[in-house]
Amino acid sequence: MSPTHPDQWSIGEPGPRPDPALLAALGELATTQLADSDGPVAVAGPGIARIAGGREVCGPAVTVWTKPGDVVYVLKAVDHIRPGDVLVVDGGGRLDAAVIGDIVAGALVGLGCAGLVVDGVGRDVDGMDATGLPTFARGAHPAVGSKTGPGAINVPVQIGGAAVRPGDLVRADSSGVVVVPHDRLAEAVEAGRVVAEREQEWRRRIATGEPLPEATGIDEALARLRP
Predict the structure, then answer these.
(1) Residue 128 burial (C-beta neighbours within 10 Å; 0-12, 13-18, 19+)
(2) What is the pLDDT of residues 91-115, one digit of tens each?
(3) Which residues contact 219 (CB under 8 A, 6 or more apart)?
(4) 0.90 cut: is pTM over it?
(5) What is each CA distance from 124 to 65, 98, 105, 174, 194, in whole angstroms?
(6) Quick check: 183 and 198 in contact, CB under 8 A?
């Protein structure tokens, strides 16, 4: 949990927009498939999970760093949302001071925001859920912290130990959160598709009656690994 950032008090330029076809392809892949691939994917550490709204999200990041528990730059970040963006808030993982709530979520929905991912906690969870905005965080807490800053918008941040730059692609679902560098999106999609196709083949073979260890190659792997 860091109380400072080298770019605190700053508002940076928005990140690049992804190719729509590649973004759609990324959204078809589960976080588990991306995590299992050999592609350029960062996996956020455990603890950040869906707390409200839709069950999954995929889109380019508008990033916010805030002094843990401070809400000023989170509120200001709404001015920088474009349709399809995911607001990513590095709140330092603080658990006793909410940095998001239903008013922020409602405003984001009105701007076409695709979702919200927070390394921290939220409040007004029922209200956030009613907006439908997919919201992933470390949990809920009824109190806020400070309203004095510092903070920063569209700067490099981290969520669950995964680095996120403005414009990087954030994919979250029931299994967790992954981040794809914006300049390696095509590579990540291709690597994820390899995993998806492999899994589909496993399912096909199991459905025809093959035992799971045989269908997935575990029997063959064990034969190689046994001394």
Answers:
(1) buried
(2) 999 999 999 999 999 999 999 999 9
(3) 213
(4) yes
(5) 21, 10, 10, 21, 40
(6) no
Which one, of 169, 170, 165, 140, lies nearest residue 152 by Cα?
Answer: 165
Residue 2 banded pLDDT, cuts 50, 70, 90: confident
pLDDT digits 0-9 by tens, 179-225: 999 999 999 999 999 999 999 999 999 999 999 999 999 999 999 99
- The residue whose two tokens read 């994917």 is 41
Tell me the CA distances in angstroms from 55 to 79, 100, 113, 135, 217, one per residue in order: 25, 18, 15, 8, 32
How far apart, in whole angstroms, are the C-alpha atoms of residue 129 and residue 127?
A: 5
- Residue carrying structure tokens 């000023």: 72
